[in-house]
Structures are given as structure tokens and as C-alpha cells.
Amino acid sequence: MRIPSRVIGGVLIASLLTQLTACGTIFYPDRRGQIEGKIDPVVAAMDAIGILFYVLPGLIAFGVDFATGAIYMPGGRNAQIAPEKLNQAISADGKVDNSKLQAILESELGLRLPLNDPRLIQHKGSVEQLAMYGLKPAA
After folding, report:
1. pLDDT digits 0-9 by tens, 18-45
2. Angle at 60 between CA 8 and CA 64, to 5 degrees
């Protein structure tokens, strides 16, 4: 009776390990939130292995990776724009005009960023949060 329980335990452990390795969201949490890009072949292969062994969890892994954006390769580009130019996109009441911001980013960086995309996550901040980090509000 000990051998069948060890086999069942081994199969259970192996299946759980394959499911942990079949999701790019676990390995690359910093990639979450990307909207588009080139698909990372390593993450796609891990998800495909999940489909080979277990169809439903593999499909779920693909779905989660596409939904979170973890399947896309990181862009690897950084850009900087002078704050004086960005101030043109801020109205008198302190709200950011997305169309003006998009025009500024397109003219300065040459990139058309989808600021009106419904998947875009916008974080709201406060003066207290800036003070916590030792920053001064200058809008």
C-alpha cells in the first residue's frame, strides 16, 4: 500500500510544480500591466507545456498571461521629458488633459501612446503621498 500512495503523491507534486511554472505572471510580475508587445517565447512555451499536460489549466495560464500582459516582452526603452513641457497638459484645477498629454508625448518621443485605452491603469495621488516620499508638489 505504500507504493501507490507514493506514486499518487509524486504525480500530485509534479502536476502542481508544472502549474507553477506554466504562468509568466508568477515569474515576471514586473511585466504585468503591459498592453501590447512581442510575445516572450519562453512564457508561451511554459504555457504550451501546461496545455500538453493539462488542457484546462494550460488555457487558463494563457488567458491569465494575456490578460495581465505578462506574456509580452518588456519594451526596454526609457524616455524623459522636461517637466515644463508636461505642465502644458495640466489644467488650472490640477487635472491632466489626456489629449494634450498625448500630443506632447507624440511630439517629444515620436510614440503614439494609447492614453484613452480602457485597460490603462491610472493612479490617483495626493499631496500627503508626495510628502511621504519627500517630494514637493509643483503642478
Report:
1. 555 557 777 777 777 787 788 888 888 8
2. 130
Give 65's contacts (C-beta < 8 A, 6+ positions apart).
23, 24, 25, 43, 47, 71
- CA angle at 94 for the pair 93 and 99, rounded to the nearest 5°: 105
3-state secondary structure the chain: CHHHHHHHHHHHHHHHHHHHHCCHHHHCHHHCCCCCCCECHHHHHHHHHHHHHCHHHHHHHHHHHHHHCCCECCCCCCCCCCHHHHHHHECCCCCECHHHHHHHHHHHHCCCCCCCCCCCCCCCCCHHHHHHCCCCCCC
Burial of 27 (0-12, 13-18, 19+ CB in 10 A): middle
What's the predicted TM-score (pTM) here?
0.43
